[in-house]
Fold these 3 entries.
Entry 1:
Amino acid sequence: MRIVIAEDDPLLREGLALLLRAEGLDVVGTADTAEGALDAIDAHKPDVAILDVRMPPTHTDEGVRAAVEARRRNPDLAVLVLSAYVEQSFATELLTGGVGGLGYLLKERVGRVEEFLDALRRVATGGTAIDPEVVAQLFTRSHQDVRLERLSPREKDVLALMAEGLGNSAIAERLFVTDGAVHKHIRSIFAKLDLAPTDQVDRRVAAVLHYLEDARRRS
Amino acid sequence: MATADVKGLAVGTATTAAAALGQLVSGLGTAILTPFVLLWLVLAPGGVRVLHALAGMERVRLARWGPEVVAPAPPPVRLRAALGDPTTRRELLWLVRHLAVGLPLGLLGFVLPVLALRDAAFPLYWRLAPKDATATSIGIGVAHSWPDALAVCLLGVGWIAIILGLTPGLARLQANPGRRLLSAGPDADLSLRVAELTATRAAALDAHATELRRIERSLHDGTQNRIVTVTVLLGAARRMVARDPAGADELLERAQSAAEQALAELRTVSRSILPPVLADRGLAGALTGLAAESAVPCAVDVEMPRRCAASVEATAYFVVAEALTNIAKHSGASRATITVRAPGPRLLLRVTDDGRGGADEHTGSGLTGIRRRVAAHDGTLRLTSPPGGPTVVEVDLPCGV
């Protein structure tokens, strides 16, 4: 897997590169600004770009804007955005361009190497990785939605993991149940929320996120 | 009554009388101009403008000796409009009263201490005075003997008693017309004043928000990144510990030093919020402290009639700290000078050295951070450092108050 990293903090940038290289991944370029990231992506044509949200010069949302621009230029590029804190508007802005090959994670998730690598691989292969924190925020803010209340606690767990972008078997592994059980839960969730059932993970994530986002707006 | 009480009362009375005398004499300053302004109004064009100016001076003077006199909305300056304008009419009324009452009272405030001194000290010099000269300040009597001289001295003591007893009242009498006639009446339009206060309040809030943003940024982009780095390195080390213990140890070593950096940055951030020394000793004291710690001998020259906003003073403090660090590290200078001036609403800061010059802010990150901080306060930083020196750092900041 060929990776470009854009992160303005030199120590963290090196730490990330070190971690990925130790895992046998190919870090082909690094940058410390959004401009530099776009140049490196154009030059190296990586599979995944890992972008920090806040970079010079304004330290606000350069990374998000670079992610949107990079995906506009290279629709096949997978992008994983790392952020120091969860900002719903960043997530929404990223997700409007489609959730396939897209990740939005808190920076500290990188320390849980196994899960981080999972997320990275998922994103690189066209999947989705949404930070549990983002999903949790969507859940708490849309809890007044009556249809969500119809879900059983286990179904809510499954829904949250689905929103993070996990596939059936990954959800089964996290919850220590069988694939079949997960499949049953998901069918039940879609029925209770009046969503069209689908097995394709990215469309499923999109459906769930849009549902939660809508519920949040309404509440 | 205890002695301490008597002493306190005496000191209190004397201080009040001295302040009242000062006020009377300062009133003389505006009063002495009243006849000229009156003449100007009668004889020459543009007198209305001069009247407004004098009224403005009086408001400033009264604010110095008591509560602020809130000015009404600026009155018209054209004669015809001004004649129908209540503010101008009130100012005109004040002008006449200040001429009739304020001027004599002001003169009294000037003359009374002179009389008191002349008569009270008479026994000290009466023998040197020409024979048959009038002894008392009121123009009667000739002193021929010591008892006569002592009587004159007694008169001086009388003057002092008059000063102590009457001057506070006289000062009030002199100030009253101005306080009553020059302030905005109860029905006056204060919207301008409100707008002004709203603007200054907004500016203060804005400066506060800027400061919060700066702190948030240094926490998120500095300290938090360091700690994320620690977790990344720890995660990598955990993955490596089984297959490559030596490599894992190296990662742990890095993680530890990143954690130490995080701590150091946290310290810096908390200090940068407000150095304790600023609150304790003010900007002048804090800069003197910095200069004393500087490796290069450093002269400090601070002239600030009042304090600036705390965040502005903190910024000035950090500019100087950074400049002195750079001077000690790079300039090879033998001496440095810090100059601070605060004319009007701005704080001007200048740090110079006699070093070799050629400083480039892009080679070190310190000055860049300082520049960002200055810009956050809507100020400017200028660095001039030709090869061969001297290096001058100039900062211009809005005072924020």
Entry 2:
Amino acid sequence: MSGLRAWLTEPVPHSRAQARAQAWWLAWCAFRANPMAMLGLGLVLLLVLVALSAPWIAGRSPFEQDLANRLSPPSAEHWLGTDELGRDIWARIVWGSRITLAIVGIVVVIVGPLGLLVGTVAGYLGGWVDTVLMRLTDVFLAFPRLILALALAAALGPGIENAILAIAVTAWPPYARLARAETLTIRNSDFIAAAIVQGASTPRILLGHVVPLCLSSVIVRLTLDMAGIILTAAGLGFLGLGAQPPAPEWGAMIATGRQYVLDQWWVAAMPGAAIFLVSLGFNLLGDGLRDVLDPKRGAG
Amino acid sequence: MVDAAPPLVEVEDLRVRFPTPRGPVEAVRGVSFAMGAERLGIVGESGSGKSTLGRALLRLVPPPGEVAAARLLVDGIDVLRADSRTLCDLRGGRASMVLQDPKFSLNPVMRVGAQIVEALRRHRRIGRREARERALAMLEAVRIREPLRVFHAFPHELSGGMGQRVMIAMMLVAEPRLLIADEPTSALDVTVQMQVLAILDDLVAARGMGLLFISHDLELVASFCDRVLVMYAGRIVETCAARDLASARHPYTRGLLGCLPKLETPVRRLPTLLRDPSWAEGA
Amino acid sequence: MIEVEALEVTWGRGARAHRAVKGIDFALPAGGTFGLVGESGSGKSTVLKAIAGLAPVTGGVIRLSGRPLGARRDKGFRKSVQMVFQDPYGSLHPRHTVDRVLAEACAIHGLDRREARIVRILDEVGLGPAFRFRYPHELSGGQRQRVAIARALIVEPALLLLDEPTSALDVSVQAEILNLLLDLKEAHGLAWIFVSHNLAVVAQMCERVAIMNNGRIVEEVAARDLARANLREPYARQLLAASRGFDRAVARTLVTYD
């Protein structure tokens, strides 16, 4: 361990890998100093851990019904109680974390690159390309996001895949806007002129020079938006347009728990708490990342 | 220099310290000097602490910087112990400061004239009409050809040289006793620079004002000022009359002069400056 | 090496068009050095940008080794003409290490023996291997400018466009960079066009000097005539007088030339 630390803090790096690792190490040191960000990271890691180890920590199947024990309060037998069909809420939340994680992952994979691509290309090339791409973005931005997602999910038919697609399609425009704004400030800088004078092609400049500088703000925005994306997914689930029963999706769980919210509060409150914790985790993480990654802070 | 009158600025063992993650860094390390109604130049390279020194005189060092001194008097005011009202009276009233780039010092959404009038009325109890007249007179004094047009202009409508003249007009309208000019002409072309300097020179002569001229340009300071302080690593390494700068004694000053390319005496290779660690340790 | 004939550059279009360069001519032999001096707005930097393909040429011809340049600069041009910018803080990508900057130049031009080239050029610009994996924010202004020079020279160009390469640096660092450029010129037989507002710097670095004002060349002289103040044009004389430090008498005589 001490050898690794020495390697990471060596004043003169000797290889590409070491230089990169040192830059990451410095960023990590700055991130580590922020306790709220560390709490956020902890919550997000907890979500990943729970999703990975669901078969071992759930204790039982999320679909196993026990009508004799329906709506029983939290106890040693059922840690978080049971729902209207006697299914164990703990098991459902644990398995449901996989659905949440999948939503988060797929949305990130679609929205990040799509927004970055549209924004940087529009910002860097300018002219009619910019006009076309940005008007398209405006069209998407003109609709309220949840309504558009609702319409899409309704048109494509209910189901978790369609819900994810609907969220992704409605979530990318702000990222394109953000990436374009960043690109406009980068476009006229001397280092881009230097790359042109070097003979670098447009794709090389976009991917190697512009995108890396837009990436950090997009990542920060994504983590901050993640809470909203989870809530949108839960909202679609709640309205019956997301995951279909009996899938243990957190939003759908709240929807069914709604009928019992006055007498059997745990049915809705437990998945609600799970959504709250994960959203909080991503928000804190995003705040922390912003402090570390934001190039305008000069940390580079 | 006027020996009988008390000095305009008296500084003894001035230190400015900035805390950093790697421990405190002293930007100014024990500087002492005094100046009267004269043109005093402070020269040094970037990082020598010359700008920080200028700011410390008006307690304008940005936080978290800490200023300490055995004595820091500007026009008789103990700057370090003054309350905020006295400081307000000092800044812009008895002493003011011109910075390098007028774009950052002028309010972009306010007309130039309004800014000058405001600066004046903050320090002098005079009516609006009189303030306006004095502002226009000041614009004329800095040789602006159409003072009325500039009075009603926004800062972005002015060229660099014009903007810097407006800055000087604004800083001088309350008739301060001391003007601290931090690289006031570095962003300007040589001919404009010369015009701005001529204005400053006239004002110093006409009003008996003290001018602290902070610059990296040795030749300019030598030709413009009466006296020069050379700073290196937060200390004053040499003080001499400006006309004697060419025969300076400290190796740092000599080195700085040596590495300037000279039109009249071209050389194949320029001499470079070999820094001696002992320079940083004291005069 | 390069010939510029009746070059015109106009930024923008229509009512907002600004003619930055209004027809200038000069020629530079291979291995020669040419300086452009002038005040801000004289169009001196725009001339360099026009040659580098970074500014819209609206008239005239630029010939490189006898061949006129088209609207787009090809790979061959990029390999033989390189540029160093004024601001060492802005001309290096903040997230690229020195190594990446140099390796990219090699990759773009498909150069062989990259490892050896990078090590050698770092040595030549006086940085050495310790700086290879550093980020720009870990370097001083002078060190960054050395990296920028290394980036330009690693593709072994024949012509270097230098846009105020030392005006953002302290004078002691300026002397080091100017000496470095002179050494590299001797070693590689470079030609360069050196743009500066500082007459002494241009006289130090160039054989011939053109004084520009308002988009035109006012006067072209040999550097030694500049040193002897052997100038014909009143604007050139005024610029020379004004660059010699503060002088009351000179300040009184200043006129605006168009």
Entry 3:
Amino acid sequence: MKKMHAFGLVGLALIIVGSIYGLTASPPERHMGDVSRILYVHVPTAWNCLLIYLFAFGFAIASLWTGKQRWDIATTAAIETGVVLNILLLGTGMIFAKPTWGIWWDWDVRLTTSLIALIFYAAILALRTFIDDPNRRATLTAVTCIISFVDVPLIYFGVRWWRSLHQIQSSPETMAETMVFPMRVNAFAVLFISIWFMLLRARIERSKLESDEVVEPPVRRAMATA
Amino acid sequence: MDKTPVASVSNPSSDPAAGVRTRRILMVASLGLALVIFGYMAFGGLGDELIYYWSPTELLDAGETAQSASIRLGGLVVPQSIVRGDDGLTLDFRVTDGDTEVPVRAETVPPAMFRGGIGVVLEGSMGADGVFDTTRLMVKHDNEYKAPDTEDNRSIKELVKSMQFETTDT
Amino acid sequence: MAPEGVIIGGWSYVIAAYVLVGVVLAAYAAHLIARTRSLDARRRRSDDRAETSVGDS
């Protein structure tokens, strides 16, 4: 158990370094000024959100293929972490949008698909609370997770396929080195933190399922003989 | 801790093989459904129907049918075309897609990044006088993030690329 | 006079974004750790109970 905390500690150290650099050492953008520093928290949360949803997609496939509970645990942990990151990407995004684009929100493809993802994945978590049977709950979670994942490539590639308010992806060619650096550091920071979250959340889910199984069989037997 | 199907009120089947088969069928079915939905979204020509903003050329080509309809117009602000009204409320400028220009009037204070050579997305409607009246002026900046001492030497043609006007079909 | 098309200041937005991220990550971490601790405590209690009931039988 102690070993998993290393991920959290590394993530914390990295995000402190990346953020201090991003807030002080990297230059203001030639047009955006200091507002550009929001990049160093907005982009890392966005990248990792999509990555974690990708993990959830893989875990869901494994959950349906093998039927083993550990994959349902992994899927749930990934979805919940993804939802937290999704909230952050939308929040930081709106805070970024107001001074740069001039508005808090518009219904372009990037923002709309990002919001849809949050709604779908949060709904999966909510749905889970309504199903008591762990088998059915795992199956439903996996199926809805696989279908929800359709939205993720739309979030990423949508700005290339359709006209949008959000600009297309940047690259090291279009971005100053002193800006790429804190963004990369924070991206790894959020990745380590996300892994730590998933490990903790998985452990909690495992404990919950174990204690549920201790409670359930006597109830089922009573109902079978009634 | 294996999840082998157990005979219970919620899952009457006690045959583990049926459980495996059902799960795997569901897996293939949901992947298939996901693929179909994705294919439709990405390649189903949705871009033509759900155009987020019109280009100046498209707007003028639509002629009178585009007038007084509430739409979004996208374009690059033509450098040196910005005229601020004496009352400080009106803002006149032109937007371009590299081929056609459309004059615009705004009665709002533009965002700080507003300037000649930047992309904008405008909500409003085309008037009979050929001027686009906008009620909502949004800045659409490109994907460049540079330090203050770096100069931007790009031409209008290059800058217009950021408006993605060629993406009508995917 | 500010040059055209440049954002001046805007630090309140920057602070808001970083605070949002910090607070949400810290709160979620605290939530997970608290749940982990209560599950550990519950397991320790049921282990103790199991030991004493074995002794009684």
